[in-house]
Amino acid sequence: MTWTLPNILTVLRLLAAPGVAVMFLFFIRPWADWFALVLFVTAAVTDFLDGYLARAWKQESKFGAMLDPIADKAMVIIALLVITGFSGMNPWILLPATLILFREVFVSGLREFLGSKAGLLKVTKLAKWKTTAQMVAIAVLFSTGAFEHYFVMESFGMDEAMVASILSGGTPDELGLVWKYWGMIVSWWTGIVLLWLAAVLTLMTGWDYFSKALPFLRDAPEPEADRSRAP
Hints:
Layout: H1 5-26, H2 31-56, H3 62-86, H4 91-114, H5 125-154, H6 160-168, H7 177-213
Helix pairs in contact: 1-2, 1-3, 2-3, 2-5, 3-4, 3-5, 4-7, 5-7
């Protein structure tokens, strides 16, 4: 393996995947949410950058081609596990996350089964849009966690009537609860819509790959037994 800059960026992106979860072990929220968001977005940018540099500098390699989709899947899967856990297994997140994880495992199994013929399952433009939608949705949902914790911390000790009065404009908003509340709501629903869009694109690409692999999954017809001819 040649340690070119594109390959180094790909390796760093792979190492950043577990780092997203580690942020929640060493930092309290909402700092963990912000650190995870920055790390995830930075790693996602390298997904575009390493491929662009490899093509521009003619440094494409088998190692990079192998590791790039692995790094992408590791980032998405680990981030979805973190978000699903901290959302309290919310079905709006759990269902699309389950579909995405199922597709990734299914397609990986197809590629492993096909072996030398796995090149038939090349990354399509739709698959790239799928990955982009996944990463944007995850980034937005990480920001939701930060807004939510700021809102909870600033409204700590207030009863529901006081919070409702501030949000409706009846009481001066000295702590900025209104923009934190709307940041939480808008980022939540934006992230949910994008995550479901990513799930639909994920299923579409999974079906496309399955259709391409289907001819190689059929068993060959058994040859008919030779029949001896009567004299």
